[in-house]
Amino acid sequence: MLYERAASLPIVSPHGHCDPTGLADNDAFSDPAAELVTRDHYLLRLLYSQGVPLEALGARPTHGASVPVDGREVWRELARHYHLFRGTPSKLWLDHTLAEVLHIAVPLRAETADEVYDEMSARLAQEEFRPRALYERFNIEFLATTDGALDLLEQHTRIGRSGWNGRVVPTFRPDDVIDPDRAGFRSHVTQLGELTGADTSTWLGYLDALRARRACFVAAGATASDHGHPSPATADLSLREAEQLFARILAGEAEPGDSECFRAQMLVEMAAMSMDDGLVLQLHTGAWRDHNPTVAARFGPDMGADMPRAVDYVSALKPLLDRFGNEAGLTVVVYTLDETTYSRELAPLAGHYPALRLGPPWWFYDSPEGMRRFYSLVTETAGFANTVGFNDDARSLLTIPARHDVARRVNAGYLAALVAEHRLEEEEAVEIAESLAYHLARQAFEVSP
Questions:
Q1: 188 contact partners, CB below 8 Å, separation of at least 6
Q2: How far is the C-alpha of 232 from the C-alpha of 283, rounded, in Å?
Q3: What is the pTM of this model?
Q4: What is the 3-state secondary structure (H, E, C) of 180-205?
Q5: Is 206 helix (H, G, I), strand (E, B) or coil?
Q6: DSSP helix/strand/coil, 428
Q7: Which 3 state secondary structure label does DSSP give 324?
Q8: Fewer CB under 10 Å: which end of the chain, C or N?
Q9: How far apart (Å, rounded) are the C-alpha atoms in residues 394 and 392?
């Protein structure tokens, strides 16, 4: 009963990485292998660990001549190695997508690769499998994409002007212009100034430019910002200290520790701006991104080499919480890849500070066992109400229902166990199942009806 009550609820997807171009153009998906394999860093990382070249999965080096990708060959490569995913959430998601979304009954194996590929291609060529039709069939109520601070949001503008009723909004992801360690940081700051008309050679002008870009995102429907920092460090410098730090970094004269201090200051500045414009501040941390320098140099970022790392949230977040932690009008959602902090740090913090909420299990822990550990470790201290429900973090529209379905099933099982142990009444478990699937995300990300 718990699963059935949650399963039919609309999907709220407040954090993900789907390309808005598909929903703006509403063209048929070009190739199922590109959509379901090459975009999926969960698949890439495990196949790479077993010696499968990333080129065989559709990845192409960032430098050199472009070589066409044969989607059928990519799909065959996946099928030959599909047994590697037994017991993983990747197999749950892909099996669900093939069976429930694409209506393919044939199990995926090496000998069925071509048959499955042909069926997928035929389905995706049909009008009812175009992006907007799928959005509606999936019962998606709200979908947020992730967009850089310099993005002109043209695709979102086209969606808004199209007359279509789907709600697709951007999310402000300013890493390229607030992280000095990002390639091209100083040129990006110059572009930020050119785009906004602000003088980004000065600290106050730089902040004005960021406010202007945030205002453009808010006008396009954004409800959140998102920050993928190496650590959750925050700082609250004086105006003079911040000006001096910014000047050193912009001049290329940064001292050891300056980049981390700047990122830390910028999280507090982003929180201050959120107090003005209402954007929820999301912090994704506890990750050593692109840990494999060989892969990063050849293929660029986000190729499946992110690794969990230890993080100290109690100390790192204190400057931000000292200034804004008691503000009920601010929402800071923290995600982590360091799950050892769940019960020791994050649950106690979220269980006290009105501004803080716990993001769902992310990346490696977006899995049945990861979700169960999360609830077991945090809810006794923070309660369910200080979490934000489920975020799918999907890179393909096709996989969104699968990921929500897995989460709703896991939630139902976890809550049923609490009922069996007389730790919850049945009607309470029903309310929580519905909240985890739908209501908490709408409330945390201020998704209006």
A1: 149, 150, 176, 177, 182
A2: 7
A3: 0.96
A4: CCCCCHHHHHHHHHHHHCCCCCCHHH
A5: helix
A6: helix
A7: helix
A8: C
A9: 5
